[in-house]
Amino acid sequence: MPIKIPNNLPATNVLESENVFVMNAARAYGQDIRPLRILILNLMPIKDVTETQLLRLLGNTPLQVEADFIYTESYIPSHTSRDYLTEFYGTFAEVRHKKYDGFIITGAPIEQLPFERVAYWDEVSEIMQWSRKHAYSTFHICWGAQAGLYYHYNIPKHWMEKKVFGVFEHRLCVQHEPLLRGFDDTFYVPHSRHTETRRADIERVPELTILSEGDAGVYIIANPRRRQFFITGHAEYDPLTLKAEYDRDLAAGLNPDIPCNYYPEDDPNRAPVVRWRSVAHLLFANWLNYYVYQGTPYELDSLDNADDWELHSGL
């Protein structure tokens, strides 16, 4: 089934070239079906790259998905034009009255700042509070995961002496978890960050469960009814995302480490090896299927408060 996206979104051409079935708004309205409504708070500076990465994965299931994008009003991104935002994005004020089956908060290149010093922290905090009554299941990615753990559970992030940069091996920490259905016992995921969330801090919060961890530390954390997921890595990354970051830092004279488990024999002149593509598709498909599609009611507005949302969950 297709993913419904705004007419003329640049990601359309890339997705269609990869045989991902996309559908514009006009055609989608002609179908007698309720699509899953997914809201994406895109905090990354180059919006269209992140859009394509996420839509590629959301569009690879039998479910019809309708994606809305929002940006922060309290900080206008400098790498994306105002015209682009006006055409393809909304603001929180424009969607706060709506309810969504799923919500995604992306990463952001601001992890070295304390949360309270982030220009849009107050707005993001308000959005995360709003999500508890207006989004059935929320996926927090990288900085979004750190922000969510800090806001909802007061879990801090910690500075690391050496940047976690590369493709790292992970393992499953629980058995028979639907989010991880189809995963191998060990699997690989990209990471790129200077800070970490520590197991000891998470274990002090009884409501949270660590679903996966590995050489890059804790990877997936969930709350009891799986209404919130916190993902510290970047399964959605393109094959060349880490290369672009490495080349950028190299050109800036930052002397970056070669990303781990990425280039054959750690040779940046060779093409990277993609080890995480199947993991990415499984992760997003399982989330959409088990924790969004099978949880939300047909009429989203029939659930009026947080208690209703919790009680409706059958997982």
UniProtKB/TrEMBL annotation:
<feature type="active site" description="Proton acceptor">
    <location>
        <position position="234"/>
    </location>
</feature>
<keyword id="KW-0963">Cytoplasm</keyword>
<dbReference type="GO" id="GO:0019281">
    <property type="term" value="P:L-methionine biosynthetic process from homoserine via O-succinyl-L-homoserine and cystathionine"/>
</dbReference>
<keyword id="KW-0486">Methionine biosynthesis</keyword>
<keyword id="KW-0808">Transferase</keyword>
<dbReference type="Pfam" id="PF04204">
    <property type="entry name" value="HTS"/>
</dbReference>
<dbReference type="GO" id="GO:0008899">
    <property type="term" value="F:homoserine O-succinyltransferase activity"/>
</dbReference>
<dbReference type="InterPro" id="IPR033752">
    <property type="entry name" value="MetA_family"/>
</dbReference>
<feature type="binding site">
    <location>
        <position position="192"/>
    </location>
    <ligand>
        <name>substrate</name>
    </ligand>
</feature>
<feature type="site" description="Important for substrate specificity">
    <location>
        <position position="192"/>
    </location>
</feature>
<feature type="active site">
    <location>
        <position position="236"/>
    </location>
</feature>
<protein>
    <recommendedName>
        <fullName>Homoserine O-acetyltransferase</fullName>
        <ecNumber>2.3.1.31</ecNumber>
    </recommendedName>
</protein>
<feature type="binding site">
    <location>
        <position position="163"/>
    </location>
    <ligand>
        <name>substrate</name>
    </ligand>
</feature>
<dbReference type="InterPro" id="IPR005697">
    <property type="entry name" value="HST_MetA"/>
</dbReference>
<feature type="active site" description="Acyl-thioester intermediate">
    <location>
        <position position="142"/>
    </location>
</feature>
<comment type="similarity">
    <text>Belongs to the MetA family.</text>
</comment>
<comment type="pathway">
    <text>Amino-acid biosynthesis; L-methionine biosynthesis via de novo pathway; O-acetyl-L-homoserine from L-homoserine: step 1/1.</text>
</comment>
<dbReference type="GO" id="GO:0005737">
    <property type="term" value="C:cytoplasm"/>
</dbReference>
<feature type="site" description="Important for acyl-CoA specificity">
    <location>
        <position position="111"/>
    </location>
</feature>
<feature type="binding site">
    <location>
        <position position="248"/>
    </location>
    <ligand>
        <name>substrate</name>
    </ligand>
</feature>
<dbReference type="InterPro" id="IPR029062">
    <property type="entry name" value="Class_I_gatase-like"/>
</dbReference>
<comment type="function">
    <text>Transfers an acetyl group from acetyl-CoA to L-homoserine, forming acetyl-L-homoserine.</text>
</comment>
<keyword id="KW-0012">Acyltransferase</keyword>
<keyword id="KW-0028">Amino-acid biosynthesis</keyword>
<dbReference type="GO" id="GO:0004414">
    <property type="term" value="F:homoserine O-acetyltransferase activity"/>
</dbReference>
